[in-house]
Amino acid sequence: MTADSIEYAMWMADAQRHLAAAREPLAAGPGPDPEALRTAYLDLLKLSLCDLAGTTTTSVGALPDGGVTARELRGDERRQRAAGMDWPLHGLTMVGLGRLDDLQACVESVVADGIAGDVIEAGSWRGGAALLMRATLDSLGDDRTVWVADSFQGFPDAGDADSEALRLSAIDFLAVPQEEVADSFRRLGCERGVRFVPGFFEETLAGLAGERWSIVRLDADTYEPTRLALHRLYPRLEVGGYMVVDDYGAFQGCRQAVDQFREENGITEPIERIDFAGARWRRKSDAPIRAAELPAPAVPRPRSAAPSRPAAVPTARELELERELQALRERLAAAEREIGLRAWLRRRLGRRGQR
Questions:
Q1: Is the CB of residue 101 less than 8 Å from the CB of residue 94?
Q2: What angle do CA 165, 22, 111 make, to 5 degrees?
């Protein structure tokens, strides 16, 4: 067994343990005091963001060609969503209830401890995690700004990048327009105190060098954007602030970028695992971060075409039926060609017989 296969087996075992321990998708009931009402509101919001308020939800999986397929989750199957182990068709976040609970606790902690600085999510997809941060701050009467940085067009064409980037760049389902994300903030009453930073990190994060952060939530998936975001954002993270990395346990490139950055800068604060994928640490040292001279990253190549967003995501059964139908079409076409050839031969032979 190779080192990679051993690591994968260990990751799968960890993920299975996390799935078994995932909390049931339940919200606290409201009470008469303000804190109970606040808790009930945020619990209901988290269920809604994960599309877990109903008895069923729809899960999306990626196909090798960049397409996606959907299936319904019922009953105990919904634990996959609560655990942050699938992609929701309709939900606003993939991270699951555990990582949302932890993020809420981080926001509450920096407010209670008086840690200065705004909060930022770098890599937002549909914006659910950033929306929870805004809602939590609002529920505490805190007016610091929530920044939402994303390309809002999915991953760029990856060229010769690592395999993780290549796979993700082919999936149009991951591309969500800024207008759609902003509308979700507005629809849920959380549009105030939100600033969007559209564009690839290579183009945008250097412009945030003057900001101060109490929470940096990084959801960049692969090596290069994770590395770039750490160098651009972490130096302005306040002591007592949280560095949250969504993909530390799920993507090798992300973990490599984080480990390299910490080693290069002598960061010794312990990494705390949130679940099988997410991790975080709280900054304790005010030692300056080495101003690394970042080699100019390749400017992201624009996508060869605008992401196409199908009106409906097919189920696995629908895809199977489509393949069967295509096979029948090909057989019919072959039969028609054969019949046409025979008719042509009959006409030719008939003309010869009349000579």
A1: no
A2: 80
| Spatial separation of the C-alpha atoms in residues 237 and 283, rounded to whole Å | 8
pLDDT in tens, 211-221: 999 999 999 98
- Rounded CA-CA distance 335/327 in Å is 12
pLDDT at 311 over 60: no
Break the chain down into helix, strand, coil percent, rounded to 5: 45, 15, 40
pLDDT band at residue 1 under the 50/70/90 scheme = low
Superfamily of segment(s) 3-282: Vaccinia Virus protein VP39 (3.40.50.150)
pLDDT of 177 reads 95
Q: How many CA atoms lie less than 13 Å away from 307 in the CB half-sphere?
A: 21
Q: Which residues contact 343 (CB under 8 A, 6 or more apart)?
A: none
Place of tokens 């634990």: 79
Written as one string, the DSSP assignment of 242-255 is EEEETTTTT-HHHH
Kind of pairing between the strands at 213-218 and 118-122: parallel
pTM of the model: 0.84
d(C-alpha 209, C-alpha 192), whole Å: 23
Q: State the CB neighbour count (10 A cutoff) for residue 53.
A: 15
For 181-191, b where at least 16 C-beta lie within 10 A, e where not — what string?
bbebbeebebe
H or E element: which one contains 197?
strand 194-198
> For residue 72, what is the DSSP state?
E
For the chain, the structural domain boundaries read: 3-282, 320-355
CA distances, 155 to each of 41, 166, 206, 235 (Å): 33, 9, 19, 25
DSSP 76-117: GGGHHHHTT-SEESS-S-SSHHHHHHHHHHHHHHHHHTT--S
Which two structure tokens, joined as six digits, stand for 342? Answer: 């025979």
CA distance 253 to 245: 12
Q: Cα angle vertex 46, ends 195, 310, to 5°?
A: 70
What one-letter code names the amino acid at 199?
Answer: G
